[in-house]
Design brief:
With 172 residues, the chain is α+β, with helices and mostly antiparallel strands. The chain has one domain (33-165). Helices cover 18% and strands 41% of the residues. The protein has one helix and 14 strands. It has a five-stranded antiparallel beta sheet with strand order 4-8-7-5-6, with no helix packed on it. The chain has a four-stranded antiparallel beta sheet with strand order 1-11-12-13. Strand 11 (137-143) and strand 12 (149-156) form a beta hairpin. It starts with a helix and ends in a 7-residue tail after the last strand. The mean pLDDT is 84.
């Protein structure tokens, strides 16, 4: 009987360790990162399997005149804040910068010396029938020291967006 309890305790402990590890990995940028605001070019699609979401193309998603990168390469985009408190590309690097502000991305495609980069923050999901602006949007993200980013909130003209939802009536 004692061995059965010991086995159960070991299994529960392993499950808890795995769950806690996933939670910490997901929350790490929020706990240790720096908030920055990125300029965007959003699109508002609907996918019947994924629901309502905003596909976000960042200003830093397309890099011109970048030599030496191939598809699936890791890239670090060095950022600098402008006078409007929006962070823009100040340079690129194939290795993690030792100082300064940067965001880590993956090269998704190349065409000549131009790159398309994804950062893992290209989609923002919300409930169906949401009323929200789709122009003049910037995204506040938090970036961990590793360069991994998470979306904090959407901004419209520099102010947080209050997403309004139409009332849903199941009888309609």
């Amino acid at each position: 009987m004692k061995k059965e309890y010991l086995g159960l305790i070991i299994v529960i402990t392993i499950v808890l360790i795995v769950a806690i590890t996933f939670i910490i990995y997901n929350q790490w940028p929020y706990m240790t990162g720096q908030k920055i605001v990125l300029a965007t070019r959003p699109v508002d699609p609907f996918d019947p399997f994924q629901g309502q979401y905003m596909q976000i193309a960042y200003e830093i998603s397309n890099i011109e005149d970048a030599k030496g990168f191939n598809e699936k390469d890791t890239i670090y985009v060095i950022l600098k804040e402008d006078e409007k408190n929006v962070w823009r590309k100040d340079g690129i690097s194939a290795s993690k910068p030792s100082s300064g502000d940067y965001i880590k991305g993956i090269v998704k495609s190349t065409y000549g010396n131009n790159l398309r980069i994804e950062y893992g923050i290209e989609q923002y999901f919300f409930q169906r029938d949401a009323k929200m602006p789709t122009t003049n949007i910037t995204i506040e993200v938090i970036v961990a020291r590793s360069g991994r980013a998470k979306i904090v909130q959407l901004l419209h003209n520099g102010e947080p967006i209050d997403i309004q939802y139409e009332k849903f009536d199941i009888r309609a």
